[in-house]
Amino acid sequence: MATLVAAQKSRVSGSALEAALDELRHLLGEARVSTAMAVREHHGRDESWHPTMPPDAVIFPETTEEVAAAVTISAAYGIPIIPYGTGTSLEGHVAALEGGITIDLTRMNKIVRVSPEDLDCTVQAGVTRKQLNEYLRDTGLFFPIDPGADASLGGMAATRASGTNAVRYGTMRENVLGLTVVLSDGRTIKTGGRARKSSAGYDLTRLFVGSEGTLGIMTEVTLKLYGIPEAVSAAVCTFSSLEGAVDTVIQTIQSSIPMARIELLDDAQMDAINRYSKLDYPVAPTLFFEFHGTEASVKEQAEQVRAIAEEQGGGGFQWAVTQEERTRLWNARHMAYYAALALRPGARGLTSDVCVPISELARCITETKQDLAKSTLQGTLVGHVGDGNFHMLYLIDPENPAELAEAEALHERLVHRAIACGGTCTGEHGIGYGKIPFLQAEHGAAVSVMRQLKRALDPSNILNPGKIVRM
Amino acid sequence: MATLVAAQKSRVSGSALEAALDELRHLLGEARVSTAMAVREHHGRDESWHPTMPPDAVIFPETTEEVAAAVTISAAYGIPIIPYGTGTSLEGHVAALEGGITIDLTRMNKIVRVSPEDLDCTVQAGVTRKQLNEYLRDTGLFFPIDPGADASLGGMAATRASGTNAVRYGTMRENVLGLTVVLSDGRTIKTGGRARKSSAGYDLTRLFVGSEGTLGIMTEVTLKLYGIPEAVSAAVCTFSSLEGAVDTVIQTIQSSIPMARIELLDDAQMDAINRYSKLDYPVAPTLFFEFHGTEASVKEQAEQVRAIAEEQGGGGFQWAVTQEERTRLWNARHMAYYAALALRPGARGLTSDVCVPISELARCITETKQDLAKSTLQGTLVGHVGDGNFHMLYLIDPENPAELAEAEALHERLVHRAIACGGTCTGEHGIGYGKIPFLQAEHGAAVSVMRQLKRALDPSNILNPGKIVRM
Prior knowledge:
By secondary structure, chain A is an alpha+beta fold. Chain A has four domains: about 1-105, Uridine Diphospho-n-acetylenolpyruvylglucosamine Reductase, domain 2 (2-Layer Sandwich), CATH 3.30.43.10; about 110-225, 2-Layer Sandwich (Uridine Diphospho-n-acetylenolpyruvylglucosamine Reductase, domain 3); about 230-340, Alpha-Beta Plaits; about 345-430, Alpha-Beta Plaits, CATH 3.30.70. Chain A has helices spanning about 1-5, 15-30, 35-45, 65-75, 130-135, 155-160, 165-170, 170-175, 205-210, 240-255, 265-275, 295-310, 325-335, 335-340, 360-375, 400-420, 435-445, 445-455, and strands at about 35, 55-60, 80-85, 100-105, 110-115, 120-125, 140, 175-180, 190, 215-225, 225, 230-240, 260-265, 285-295, 320, 350, 380-385, 390-395. Chain A has a seven-stranded antiparallel beta sheet, sandwiched between helices. The first copy, chain A, has a five-stranded antiparallel beta sheet with strand order 5-6-10-8-9. Chain A has a four-stranded mixed beta sheet with strand order 1-2-4-3, with helices on both faces. The model of chain A is unreliable at about 1-5 (pLDDT under 50). At the A-B interface, strand 9, helix 9, strand 11, helix 10 and helix 12 of A face strand 9, helix 9, strand 11, helix 10 and helix 12 of B. Chains A, B: InterPro entries: FAD-bd_oxidored_4_C, FAD-bd_PCMH, FAD-bd_PCMH-like_sf, FAD-bd_PCMH_sub2, FAD-linked_Oxase-like_C, Oxid_FAD_bind_N, Vanillyl_alc_oxidase_C-sub2.
């Protein structure tokens, strides 16, 4: 890892940094400005295989005004600024590629407002999704977007995250109503209000959602909320073939059954989950389902899906009706990433994230698994297949250049397979700096438009430089 | 109207126009370049009270390549370009404020591709929503977004349109997967593929959706499609008070009942509909409902809503179960605008379009109607109330400056009422040039960001100049 850290080229001069830090200490106090190596390293890495690239300093603001003042100070010295939520992203989003100051938003963890009657709320960017749902517990409402990790809602907005139940509730794209954003020149704007829909000018909310801190720093997020369904049930179904599982998904979606979750796990992933979570599911392609609605509609949906699954060679449904059974089932699913990593102690994950039209899903998954089988690497597959999104996780020793190169070659072939059929290189993880070459392959000339937008809003390239587009 | 046309200041010199038209005739042939006054006037007006402002010429391209070549030619001479779909917009979007060349996209009416298995399609921008649904008839699929008018899908994307069933299916924001766009310099980009979700870079699709032709000319649109529901039923319910109707809506939404449509019409609008469509509904606040789902779930939804309505003083449901009855009901609703205009022969409509959090809906509507009652004007109200969106239509003689001023004052107070409670000045019609002052009131400093984006993508301000932001 040491060599990889050395590749980081700071553009920050020592004197500029010291001058900026003096001002920041004056703004925030000594205790909220850190240059300790442990703190810097912690903020320079995410949960992926990407190497640690620590910033020069980390600051801990508590208000939008403090963020705006900190950005103004950093901008005056030309120092890069990297926003940080929980560090659970997967494409090097938080790496300080060019040095700079990381803005840790975890102290901005206040729930500003909940309006149960309007099914919306406003939170500071550092509030995590579990914190919000805990807070909402007595209101009968919940925030459904669930990327697995207990990520911050600002971070989820910044990466356009989604997860297991996007098939029903959409992604952060559909669920953010408005943002408070600090711009590169220190100005603060609100991108939208609380109206459910608006045609009032350019869609700044959607421009900032998914911009990964490169166009502005989100400090508050206004979100849609949903009523907790009257009835929820979940089930697991094992298939003799991957095609059978995928065809079940396709028919379910085509039948307009309003699934809350429909998740695919391959045999390798089921094996990993059994070992990690001490379970005894059959080691075979498996679908995890969740149904939301009234008692009657949940029953009807489940019957429809069971009939489809049986036609496609699905074994009997194992039901998880009680909250406790459901929690066990979805915890196992949420631990899939860590379960897979545990298959090979010390390994890190190179995670793919393609999303394709569902008619291409079976072919794309099959070819990807065949390609893996021909390699020397081990991997597991999970998919939010109702959306056509799946993750092949390649287990690698990041210190071994040959393994990394092999995983990157497998990944590259997978991405080109997805793009060729109208898909995307990333359904929900984002570009960071890990997927920049694929962005070009996917969007072509449109990347130059992204560059024009970046230049317009951050002419000095101080906001999370080196992510999404290189200037 | 003559004086209003005279206010238009063309920035196009005669010699530049002649040179550009020569090149355009070479590109498209004589028949597809028109300078006839009748053609120009037709393209310089929409369905609103806004005065006709004809372009200097109208062209009729048939391919993306022709649009790109035409934009390149116009840009070389600094001539404004205004895209035109069906002319059914309401905020002067098509008015040639500074002269220029209108690109009529109605010949771009090919359905490029339908993928029933993926529930998506790609159409040229001039295809109308009814044309698409006619084409889809045998596939079991439909495109739900329904703004009333048989608008072009490019125009609907450009104004971020929605309409009666956005409460279930979302707006154009949620239903456009990707666009082919010609930029101000003549380059063509694709903003997205066919993946249901993507985190690959800035959300260019959402940036162009709602940009009203000011950032690029859309030539193709990739859309989500939906399975035609197994069962559809509709109903009409009359209320003794407006509050009862609105409270029914709020409780229905809060109960997570997946309504397909839930429309409010006030007593004045019901009177207008009865006269125009020869119907005999009670002249009272009324909700129109539509339910989509399986036979069982539609029945369940309808029972739930009926119970809520009865609690709120709603009279008995009048059911419209057959296709014929439903068509009559929704045709009456769709004709609401024309029915209202017919209350005062020769009048034009000044249409408001605010959208507010639903908890504010009853107060906002009540105050708006009280304000109208104190005026000399006549007006009617319809609302896509499940989203908090409603239209107060003020009937005016556009030649009478006092009436126009009174309507504008009523409208202004309504907009500020909506913005004060977190709402928007326009839920679905867009800004055009009619609502520019309100955009500033609503978005404040964020408008300067919109201006930065416009400058970045259209530095010479040739794309539909004077709309959304003034440069």
